[in-house]
Every structure is written in C-alpha cells, then in structure tokens.
Write a structure and sequence with these properties.
The structure is a single chain. By secondary structure, this protein is of the alpha/beta class. It has a single domain (16-246), classed as Creatininase (Rossmann fold), CATH 3.40.50.10310. The chain has six helices and five strands, in the order E-H-E-H-E-H-E-H-E-H-H. The protein has a five-stranded parallel β-sheet with strand order 1-3-2-4-5, with helices on both faces. One of its GO terms (biological process) is riboflavin biosynthetic process.
Length: 256
C-alpha cells in the first residue's frame, strides 16, 4: 500500500507525511444509518473504508479516520439511524478540516459517501477556502463510478439498492442478509419528473405518497451481484485516482 491510515501513525510520522505535502483524505461514511432489512447500518462506513483503502493502495495519500456521522434527515426516524443537525455537521467538518490546515496541511480532499451531506460539504469547503485560502477538493458518491452504471438493471435506485448491495457483496458479503432483500421502489416510479428539487424522507406509512418505502429501500437489491460490485468499486477508484492526480500532481508523486 502506497498510502497510510493516519490512525496507524505516530505523531512524528504524521508530521513527516504532512511536511512532504501528502494529500490528506477525509472520508465521510455513516456508521449507523438504515439501509433496509438486508444491509447493515454501517453500510456507508464500509463503503467509505473500502474506497479509501483502494485509493491508498494506488496513491501515497494519508487517509484520516472516517467521519462516521452526518446530516441524514430522510432516515432519522428509523431505529439505530444516527443523524446530526446541519449546524452540527457543518461545525464538525469545519473543525476537522480546519485542524489539518492549522497543522500545516495544504493538500486536502473529502470523500463523501452520502447524498444529503453533499450541499453542506460543498458550502463548508467554500467557506474554508474563503477564510483560509486552502482549496479543499470534494468527491461525492453520486458523481463517482458512473462508468459502471451500464451494468445495473433496476428501474430506479437511490438507497439500499442494487448498486449499494452489489458493492457490499464485493466488500464484506458476510454482512449481507441476502434472504431479506426485496425490490422496493415505493411510489417513486410514479413521481412526476420535473426540474424542481423536492426534499424527501423515507416512510413506511402507506399514505406517505412519494416518500413511501415498505423496507427503507429504494431500488431492487435482488439484482445485485458481487461482480457488479467489483466493477463499481473499480470505476470509483479510477475516478478518485484520476482526480487526485489531476488536482495534486506533485503531492501524489511523492515517495512513501
């Protein structure tokens, strides 16, 4: 592995990496958020860890400890789902990233596995650039690995679906309750397609309209295969590697 996990270093070793100008990557992945009846609450955390490990296998980056909490309002009512207010999540990001900047890190990137977290991450990166002059790069899972989209067959995806299930099959199949996976599109297929953004929640209440989801899933996890998951992870890794090489060419060429 060319990169390292920050948590495995001593502080003098961390300083050596920082002083060499290594890119520090902060992954965001919920450690406890509902993903239906078949995927564990730690699905996002597993995805964040796998993506970061694959990235560090190729590039000499320093991977910070995964941020296991975030702004996940659509799932807050499910038992076990942990959710931060937008103010708390933004403040946490500001403190963590600002701490690295205070320690002399100038090459920083965020790897975000959430969707509702996207706008808050982008705003905080913009604000930190305004106040510190450090331009932090942000990668969101919604934009990653799109080259593998042709493999997926579900009518509609979004959460605990064919895509996420396939990646967990590739990462840690023992965590999967495959016999509990069922198609669940809720009422989203009938929802009007417009240019407007509409906030949404997931709800098991039959009268919830387009928010309805019987299982907390949106998509068809029964179509997932390990092979699709491997292809998706490979596509995500390629996007991340290409992106960091383009943005930080000198930093990612340093010797570990």
């Amino acid at each position: 592995m060319k990169g390292v996990w920050l948590e495995d270093l001593t502080w003098p070793e961390a300083k050596e990496w920082f002083d060499r100008g290594a890119v520090v990557v902060l992954p965001i992945g919920a450690a406890s958020k509902e993903h239906g009846h078949h995927l564990p609450l730690c699905t996002d955390y597993l995805l964040a860890r796998a993506m970061a490990e694959r990235l560090a296998a190729v590039l000499p980056v320093v991977v910070a400890p995964i941020l296991p909490f975030g702004y996940y309002p659509a799932f807050r009512h499910y038992p076990g789902s942990q959710h931060l207010s937008p103010e708390t999540f933004s403040a946490l990001l500001k403190d963590l990233l600002g701490g690295f900047i205070d320690q002399g890190v100038r090459n920083l990137a965020v790897l975000n596995t959430g969707v509702s977290t996207e706008p808050l991450v982008n705003v905080q990166l913009r604000e930190l650039y305004e106040t510190t002059g450090v331009r932090i790069a942000g990668a969101h899972i919604s934009n990653l690995g799109r080259a593998a989209d042709v493999l997926f067959e579900q009518k509609l995806g979004g959460h605990g679906d064919e895509h996420e299930t396939a990646m967990i099959m590739a990462i840690d199949p023992a965590r999967l309750r495959a016999e509990k996976a069922v198609p669940d599109y809720g009422n989203m297929i009938e929802a009007p397609k417009t240019v407007f953004y509409l906030p949404a929640v997931f709800s098991g209440e039959a009268g919830a309209g387009i928010d309805f989801s019987q299982t907390g899933v949106r998509g068809d996890p029964t179509l997932a295969t390990r092979e699709k998951g491997e292809e998706a992870l490979d596509a995500i890794t390629a996007d991340l590697v290409d992106g960091l090489r383009a943005l930080f060419p000198d930093a990612v060429s340093i010797s570990s």
